Amino acid sequence: MQESGTPQRVLRNPQSEEVKKGCSPLNIPPSPFMRNLGYGTGVNVYRLERSGQTCSPWAVKRASHRIEQLNHDKYATLNNRIVKEAEILRQLQHPNIIGFRTITKDCNGVDALAMECCNTSLGLILERRFEENEGPLPAIQTKKLIEDIAKALDYLHTEARLLHGDIKSYNVLVKGEFEICKLCDFGVSLPLDETGHVDFAKDSKLEYVGTLLWSAPETFKDGKIGSSCDIFSFGLVIYETIALVPPHTFEVEQNEIEDLNNEEKCSNAFGSNDDTIKQNCPNIDETNNELDESNVFESLENFLSDELVYGNRPPLPGAFDFSDDYNIIIELFYLCTNEIPTDRPNGKEIWQSLQREKETTQSE
């Protein structure tokens, strides 16, 4: 008699499953044949349309060929981050975290990470509102955003035991009219120990990267790096929904950053068509349709480094009159950006406070 036992888990093969559904096997074409969704420091993200009636588009992320030509060591580092991100995303299962699809090689043998495709990023939405003088993001959309990303952070910090390490508006993706918001870009994530901190002594290769404008004060003071760093950065994302500009930049005079205008236009390429990108960004490589990888945030940080002190709570713009709907939003901004890490709420406390507020409003 054959012994019974626990059935072995069948590993999911995204590519073979797509073939069964009538989709063609994943084939990453050269970049001119894909629409550019956006870019970061040395990476490009493209929209890949797939054949088959039931096949949704995917977002494909890969290191820039231009970086490979200019700096091979940096290219190798970026490519390794993409491989690392794929390994992390493969393990994460949460509705508010961008979905992993597969990792493969493109036609040039470069590692390409395929992910769920969303409409746009929060960063781009806020840029457009700023350009059109539309004022702060509507409270109902901001609350939805905060609740969704707080749930993602709660999952990351308590179940996955991961520090995202680079929370900012451009790493928050939005589907539809804020139907759901998702966290993306896990290339610099770090493991958390049982206390919720990164144990650098245990692994000397670990390094906190982040983005200066959104970084918590303890990252500048050799303090303990932990989940509360993500919460501080998230507080600055809440700030962005009100000020419509990156933290620490609201009071910078526009004429002082004219030299950055071209790079800021390039940052708007997320979702722009090719003609708009080429018009605004003269440094595009015409042969492969890739943007020059000078990062707009690095430029801002370099320009502002002598003018501002990072790692603090920026003042809210005084020109806006807020309705009562914004009370909890502003309160969460202040709580998340407390200087002392233990004074900041955790992800669960944030999303639960919004649910309580919603229940109270409905009962009135």
UniProtKB/TrEMBL annotation:
<protein>
    <submittedName>
        <fullName>Tyrosine kinase specific for activated p21cdc42Hs</fullName>
    </submittedName>
</protein>
<dbReference type="GO" id="GO:0005524">
    <property type="term" value="F:ATP binding"/>
</dbReference>
<dbReference type="InterPro" id="IPR008271">
    <property type="entry name" value="Ser/Thr_kinase_AS"/>
</dbReference>
<keyword id="KW-0418">Kinase</keyword>
<keyword id="KW-0808">Transferase</keyword>
<dbReference type="InterPro" id="IPR000719">
    <property type="entry name" value="Prot_kinase_dom"/>
</dbReference>
<dbReference type="GO" id="GO:0004674">
    <property type="term" value="F:protein serine/threonine kinase activity"/>
</dbReference>
<dbReference type="InterPro" id="IPR011009">
    <property type="entry name" value="Kinase-like_dom_sf"/>
</dbReference>
<feature type="region of interest" description="Disordered">
    <location>
        <begin position="1"/>
        <end position="25"/>
    </location>
</feature>
<dbReference type="InterPro" id="IPR053235">
    <property type="entry name" value="Ser_Thr_kinase"/>
</dbReference>
<feature type="domain" description="Protein kinase">
    <location>
        <begin position="31"/>
        <end position="364"/>
    </location>
</feature>
<dbReference type="Pfam" id="PF00069">
    <property type="entry name" value="Pkinase"/>
</dbReference>
<dbReference type="GO" id="GO:0005737">
    <property type="term" value="C:cytoplasm"/>
</dbReference>
